[in-house]
Amino acid sequence: MSSFPPASTPPHQAFEVDGRAWGHESGPGDVAARSPWQLFWRRFRRDRVAVAGLVFIAVVVLAAMLAPLIVQLVGARDPQEQSTEYLDSFGLPVGPGPDNLFGADPLGRDVFSRVLYGAGVSLQVAFLSTGLAALVGVTVGLLAGYHRGWADAVLSRAMDLTLAFPVLLLGIGLGSACSVGAGCAGGLVEPGLPLVVLIIALATWPSFARLVRGQVLSLRETQFVEAARALGASGARIVFREILPNLLGPIMVYATLLVPANILLEAALSFLGVGVQGRPTWGEMIAEATQVFDTAWWFMLFPGLALVLTVLAFNLVGDGLRDALDPRSDR
Q1: Closest by CA position to 94, among listed 298, 284, 282, 280
Q2: Whether residue 2 is found in the same domain as residue 97
Q3: C-alpha–C-alpha distance, residues 150 and 154, integer Å
Q4: What is the pLDDT of residue 191?
Q5: Residues 169 and 305 occupy one common structural domain
Q6: Are 301 and 286 in contact (CB under 8 A)?
């Protein structure tokens, strides 16, 4: 199709040919060319549920970053401060009230401040583990899908072996082994946050690798890859300059969906006692609340509600990103 404007076009009418806007003057009815980012944002903002989820995530992240300031403004106590003042005559924690917005736990600690600080721990673990899993998984998937042959066979068997290993059993084993002394790998992996991030990344990188490998197997046969190969481009250049940019959409969507799964996995590890030690986490609070749920319902309700809403918000945003990045949804 010719890229020049038709001769019969009125002088003040705009139109679009081959994705480019033409016309002498702009008007309210003109059709303008849009960049891929503009098309993505237009699709995404039409999904009000996904936008609401994104706003909720932003609020949670902001609250986690400003947790010390918020605790000070509302007059709450430090999350680790224990006090018998907030226990009744029977030694049971008191419920929500002016002095304790979310009540107290069996040790007299402020549940509100612990939920707030726990958000920071959960988000740090989820983002760091997802980023590490994406780095390893995308690299392995690119190598396996593009080179194929023995490299694909070895890396694919490594993915299958890792996926076949029970995640919680892996977490308990590594948590027990690395929690003694200076940690694992000569002190490189220390007990606490780095250990939990490593456990979750080890359990989730094969999912990224399999996703990327399947996409690369399809893209490596396309015409633009064949053209780059014919021009003498190296394999590394083809992989990272031609193929990888076309995978950013699926990678971003899957990472958004994996973050809530990693939040739940961190909660499960904390529930089993191999999570982040010395800092409040939602999973640890839920584990402690199981023993006093019949008398202190608020101790499980608020961290559980925070966990459920945060995971739901990430899932909604992931669904919205998937629809927005699909060209067929532009209607």
Answers
A1: 298
A2: no
A3: 6
A4: 66
A5: yes
A6: no
For the chain, the farthest-separated pair of C-alpha atoms sits apart, in whole angstroms, at: 91
Give the pLDDT score at 190. Answer: 65
Distance of CA 221 to the CA centre of its chain: 31
Give the confidence band of 2 by pLDDT, cuts at 50, 70, 90: very low
Q: What is the pLDDT of residue 14?
A: 45
Q: Would the pLDDT of 81 be above 70? A: yes
Establish if 43 belongs to a structural domain.
no
* DSSP class per residue in 7-69: TTS-TT--EEETTEEE-SS--TT------HHHHHHHHHHH-HHHHHHHHHHHHHHHHHHTHHH
Given a contact cutoff of 8 angstroms between Cβ atoms, the answer to whether 274 and 291 are in contact is no
Looking at the structure of the chain, the number of domains it has is: 2
Same domain for 9 and 59? no
SS3 state of residue 280: coil
Q: Does residue 123 sit within a domain?
A: yes
Q: For residue 40, is it within any domain?
A: no
Say which DSSP state 81 is in.
-
Give me Rg for the CA atoms of the chain: 26
Provide the b/e sequence for 118-143 (b: ≥16 CB within 10 Å): bbbbbbbbbbbbbebbbebbbbbbbb
For residues 145 and 191, membership in a common domain is answered with: yes
- The reply to whether 315 falls in a domain is yes
Its domain, for residue 21, covers 1-33
Whether residue 284 sits in one domain with residue 144: yes
Structure tokens belonging to residue 329 = 């949804």
* Residue 104 and residue 1 share a domain: no
User: Do 215 and 300 reside in the same domain of the chain?
Assistant: yes
**With 90 as the cut, is the pLDDT of residue 151 above it?**
no
Q: pLDDT at position 170, please? A: 79
Q: Does residue 56 share a domain with residue 20? A: no
In this prediction the pTM is 0.78
Residue 92 forms beta bridges with which residues? none
Give the whole-angstrom CA distance, residue 186 versus residue 19.
Answer: 57
* Mean pLDDT, residues 199-212: 89
Average pLDDT in the 16-25 region?
A: 46
The confidence score (pLDDT) of residue 309 equals 92
